[in-house]
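Data availability (excerpt). The following record was deposited with the supplementary files.
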Amino acid sequence: MSIRRLPSHLINRIAAGEVVERPASALKELVENAIDANACRISVRLSGGGVEGIEVVDDGCGMDAEAMALALERHATSKLPESLWDSGAIEGVATLGFRGEALPSIASVARLTLESRVRGADGWRRVVDNGVLVEEGPAALPPGTRVRVDGLFERIPARRKFLRSARSEYAACLDVVRRLAMARPEIGFTLEHDGRRILSVQPDETRPERVAALTDRALADNSVAVDLERAGHVLGGVAGLPTFNRGVADHQYLFVNGRPVRDKLLVGAVRGAYAEMLARDRHAVVALFLDVPASDVDVNVHPAKTEVRFRDPALVRGLIVSGLRRALDEAGHRVVQAADAGAMTNWTAEPAMAPAYAPAPQNFAWGPAITPGAGDGLVRDVRPTFLSPPPAARAEPAAMPVPATVQHPLGVARGQVARTYIVAEAEDGLVIVDQHAAHERLVLERMRGAIAAGSVRSQALLLPEVVELDEPACDRLEERAAELAEFGLEVERFGPQAMLVRATPALLGQGDVAGLIRDLADELAAHDQALSLKERLDHVAATMACHGSVRAGRVLSVAEMNALLREMEVTPHSGQCNHGRPTWVKLAHSDIEKLFGRR
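Predicted structure:
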């Protein structure tokens, strides 16, 4: 077979396969072009999640008719300065795009309408339908550029059938606009989807204001500023406090020289900085902006320019880890600022009548646990315990002595350390139990058993709770509402960006409903497409169990501690929590003797 040159239309379609994977890819290229045109305001309109239509309007420098014709040819660009034209030193390019493939690639797989006007001149219009010029002529529009993409992959069914649902494609487009808007606080952005305004940020905002507006309004009060410079590399941005974390890493926004990237080196550095402060299944919320000399980074590694390569990766990693840890160290003992109002109402102060030396009674019955409070008073926790239902139709004495027998695998509870760890005496040693981790596993196994038996009971809320989320998260929860109902969690849509919670699983008792819903939305985002239904349900059950477990810092009575130990002994997999951490450890008598030099 002889070697032949590929026809131009086929070359463009091959290039489109590298640059335009989905509507979000095309949108990214168009918005980046608007940014490079020095626009002050950029407006994006989507229809059908971007599959049916994408429109990007900017007030940038615009193009004349001749420049528009060149823009639709491959490898034609205005973004390579004259000084670099002959040398070919593309590492010196400071714009977001410069390959000259985006517009012709998009035009080869969709109907592209390009309208533009230079200030002081008339506008011009060109329409290219799947690689063929079908219309051109004058156009009326204000200075700037308007690009319309209709019917992406409409004539390439092999590509279109691999697109996801309109909601999924819309979520990807929203993420693209959010990241680009975060990178350029000096530019105003608006986003509309099917005629409804989704996002609107004004130009000339400060970086923290823009980040908080595009992520979570609570981040402004629960973050620290990051600012560090080393060897010409400058790191800035905001870092969420360790207690302000999420269930997936989608809330980590990383930028290199103003370019949004998804780089493994940067993600690994963020995880390393938070390694000793977050559980392995939790992820920090950060927006980091790294500025490095152009000669020290290669942004042309990937056609979509979402990956970069650093000349000195160790320097970059060390800069991020040091910058984050220094900022978090300066935060001191700060935690999430807003206390949960529902949790606070469960506590009532009692009159300071008892003497300071009076010991707190041990409640054998399944009543409220009494915990010492500040000063000389007592604070009573009136929350119901979650360990098991109360005994039916029989009275229990208010207090009983600690059982003497230790003939149980996990022994008999002797006390509690740091309001987090249960200390028990067994026949062959000392057992220490993490009460939250252990009860988390027990709740999960109970929930799994109830699901298998089809008997998960729900507890209706006296007042339904409204939880505000972004629209894609609400979409995911709404699609899985029937599955969540199998767990006893009843949710329904309450406007574009909120969910209404009517009932929660009875096994969970009273807890942080808003936190539960947010974590479930994150779990669905991370695992909804990749896992089977059974695996997805397990992830949801594990998330619910975590929210329904006895928390560290909760004082338990001896009876409650022993009940927890007994249930652990008969529950499968109770040796580790839902996140893989151990729930208990044992010090054998021989180990204790070694500690004291007896052996």
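Summary of structural features: Residues 346-599 form a domain with the formyl-coa transferase, domain 3 fold (CATH 3.30.1540.20).
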